[in-house]
């Protein structure tokens, strides 16, 4: 179903809405060819990939960048249980199939990377290749949270688990809290770019939907989360900005048993957590080279 959306913010992207299970996912789309799906992180939305969408399309790929459930123009279901990682992974499987593809190359940053990891585990048949940007493999993240240095970096995981208070805090002072998350990006985000972000954050229920990712994750018993992990079949590339203030560099490389087909970890020493913004051209080149020429 095609509807008016935000694709006009860039050069004529196609907007669409996919009915996937019990949610409706907004996405933008560009190009023709093999499907590449770009999954944004927190607190971004499809627009976080603004520097990759058109170059990837120009390289011969059909690019789909959705708003994850809870974000921007996608459905924002009530309740923490609606943001269980199994539901998030099922959304991406459903989106790939709804767009008429049997499978896709999956690219994810931050929370989008976590969803990409889990989609590749839960639904390997729809993931041809996997590219992860500054998102620790779930086992690595769990291990990291046992160390004080990573706990200090991840304090907001536990703040967001609180009821109601986080929503009040993030909305204050023109969304200062969320804008502060993006402070490390270089070059800095412009006022016009922030205006687009604020429009997305201001959608009714979006702040709660975004924060519910954290609430759901901290409610999941660690043993249950670990028991759900499976080796990933897809060839995998990890791209890592070494100046990440939220995730330590020791979390970049997954265990071989978890990702037996890891191609490599490409570390970009001057990039922050927002690696796809800081080194946009390099990230696009890495994706194109790894995903391979269109068939």
List keywords for this structure.
Rossmann fold; single chain; globular; alpha/beta; 295 residues; eight-stranded mixed sheet
Describe this structure in words.
The protein has 295 residues and is of the alpha/beta class. It has a single domain (7-291), classed as Rossmann fold, CATH 3.40.50. 39% of the residues lie in helices and 17% in strands. The protein has helices spanning 53-58, 85-98, 111-122, 138-144, 148-153, 155-159, 165-181, 191-201, 206-219, 222-227, 275-278, 280-291, and strands spanning 14-20, 23-30, 35-39, 62-66, 104-109, 127-133, 236-241, 262-268. An eight-stranded mixed β-sheet has the order 1-2-4-3-5-6-7-8, with helices on both faces. A hairpin with a 2-residue loop joins strand 1 and strand 2. Keywords: Hydrolase. Pfam families: Abhydrolase_1. GO terms for molecular function: hydrolase activity. This is Pimeloyl-ACP methyl ester carboxylesterase.
């Amino acid at each position: 179903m095609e509807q008016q959306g935000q694709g006009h913010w860039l050069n004529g992207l196609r907007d669409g809405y996919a009915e996937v299970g019990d949610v409706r996912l907004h996405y933008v789309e560009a190009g023709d060819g093999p499907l590449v799906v770009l999954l944004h992180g927190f607190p971004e939305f499809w627009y976080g990939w603004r520097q990759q969408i058109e170059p990837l399309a120009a390289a011969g790929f059909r690019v789909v960048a959705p708003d994850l459930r809870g974000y921007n123009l996608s459905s924002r279901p009530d309740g923490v249980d609606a943001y269980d990682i199994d539901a998030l992974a099922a959304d991406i499987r459903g989106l790939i199939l709804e767009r008429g593809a049997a499978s896709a190359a999956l690219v994810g940053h931050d929370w989008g990377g976590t969803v990409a990891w889990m989609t590749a585990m839960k639904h390997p048949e729809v993931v041809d290749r996997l590219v992860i940007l500054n998102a620790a493999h779930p086992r690595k993240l769990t291990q990291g949270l046992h160390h004080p240095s990573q706990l200090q970096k991840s304090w907001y995981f536990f703040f967001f688990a609180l009821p109601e208070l986080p929503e009040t805090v993030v909305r204050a002072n023109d969304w200062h809290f969320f804008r502060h998350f993006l402070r490390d990006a270089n070059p800095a985000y412009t006022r016009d770019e922030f205006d687009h972000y604020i429009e997305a954050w201001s959608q009714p229920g979006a702040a709660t939907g975004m924060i519910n990712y954290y609430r759901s994750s901290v409610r999941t018993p660690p043993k249950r989360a670990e028991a759900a992990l499976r080796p990933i079949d897809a060839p995998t590339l990890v791209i890592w900005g070494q100046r990440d203030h939220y995730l330590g560099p020791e979390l970049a490389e997954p265990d071989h048993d978890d990702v037996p087909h890891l191609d490599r970890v490409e570390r970009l020493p001057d990039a922050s957590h927002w690696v796809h913004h800081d080194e946009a051209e390099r990230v696009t080149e890495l994706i194109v080279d790894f995903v391979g020429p269109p068939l």
